Amino acid sequence: MRREFFTPSNLLSISRALLAIPFVFVMLSSLPTARFWGACIIVVAALTDKFDGLLARKFGYETEWGRILDPLADKVAVAAAALVLLKLGDIPLWFVMVLIVRDTLIFLGGLYLKARNGVVLGSNLAGKWAVGIISLALFVLVVSGLSTVATVLIGASTVMLAVSFGLYVRRFADALKGPAA
User: Fold this and answer.
1) How do residues 87-116 score in pLDDT, each as one tens digit?
2) What's the Cα-to-Cα distance from 12 to each of 15, 45, 163, rounded to whole Å?
3) Is the pLDDT of residue 1 over 70?
4) Can you tell me the distance from the alpha carbon of 133 to that of 157, in angstroms, rounded to the nearest whole number?
5) What is the pLDDT of residues 29-88, one digit of tens each?
6) What are the percentages of helix, strand and coil residues in the chain, rounded to 5?
């Protein structure tokens, strides 16, 4: 696995995390078009998520850094959007807490595993589905606020978060059984 940092796919991951900044400013502004621009930013962020993986696989840009940056960018972008929507009263507190606690535990577990065994666990398929459903939920929440569709997507996101977390815990435990570095 390559160790390069500045690959096109890694730059897309970094840009996704950085898109949280204009998202926060736009959504908390008094612009009458704030929700439109917020939705546009979510679409661009989702596209960077799609294309960073495609580039990495198609052109051999898969790196250890990418295995760290891609899920970290997802966590930063999703947390920023969820916290803004919480401030605006468009998302339930319990969901934001589930999201942030789960992502924090995965991040800290990843740091521990890297330090102890030198292993970086990549995202699992359930985690990718969870991010996709969460992104769709956030998009709907930005466009229309809390609605029936958003509530169903939040429920589906919660299920996927739980499934992906359970799979991550299993992979984490298996990786800990490996030789300590």
Assistant:
1) 999 999 999 999 999 999 998 998 898 888
2) 5, 9, 27
3) no
4) 6
5) 999 999 999 999 999 999 998 888 788 788 877 887 888 888 889 899 999 999 999 999
6) 80, 0, 20
Domains of the chain: 8-176 (1.20.120.1760)
Look at residue 153 and tell me whether its pLDDT is greater than 70: yes
- Contact (CB, 8 A) for 10 and 52: yes
Catalogue the long-range contacts made by 118-122 (C-beta closer than 8 Å, 24 or more residues apart).
118/181, 119/175, 119/178, 120/64, 120/67, 120/68, 121/67, 121/168, 121/171, 121/172, 121/175, 122/67, 122/71
Q: Which token pair is 110?
A: 């990843």
Name the token pair of 119. 């292993």
The candidate with the shortest Cα–Cα distance to 67, out of 123, 8, 113, is: 123
